[in-house]
């Protein structure tokens, strides 16, 4: 067990590095003065791109690869459907349109503030869901770091580095909407850091539950449906916000930039994984 323990420790510290980089992303948000709406929109777009890339190229892709096209799709759309129902029960905050119209005429900034009030809950919600989505996504990454570092320190280090890199924008994606909605830097930082800590948690759970009781097929399916949830959420919550704040053209560019960024980091993640152990 001694050997196993030292390995768990190595994997834990590596995955902590990965997880902490989510906090680094959050720090960027916290250090900056209150971001302007345009910037919020672009960053929401960028975050939406990250999420879509994870959903389609990572989670759904892996589910389809491991349990087949049909089953993978069924799980994915089950996630979509499930979440579509859930969002129906989340009340949309409403504001009287009259004050909105007036203040827009008097003072552009006031109009912006009204929009913000209306969106605050939606923004906060998108931040919290991003945090949940990213935690679920970080979870198997933690497992990967653990399994990788069992293969050798170099592999584990590479993995941790690749994961750390792409956790920074994930941290931004969580912290930004939360900070914007709550105006509390501490809350933003806390939530982003928590979603990063799912990574070492993944390590601990794998280390002590291996071999796990959950059948791999169900696990892959569940990850696929997490992809569905994330995709639905991104298109339902984050994209409209990005459009509102940054304008459609700019927001769409930001989305694809985010997707490309995530794909590159997922690629590096894959390249640094040993051949016989894929995520």
UniProtKB/TrEMBL annotation:
The organism's place on the tree of life at top rank: Eukaryota
Keywords, comma-separated and alphabetical: Membrane, Transmembrane, Transmembrane helix
Protein localization: Membrane
InterPro entries recorded: ZIP
Transmembrane regions: 6-30, 42-60, 72-90, 123-139, 159-179, 191-210, 222-239, 251-269
Chief subcellular location: membrane
GO cellular component: membrane
GO MF annotation list: zinc ion transmembrane transporter activity
Membrane topology of the entry: Multi-pass membrane protein
Protein name, UniProt field: Zinc transporter ZTP29
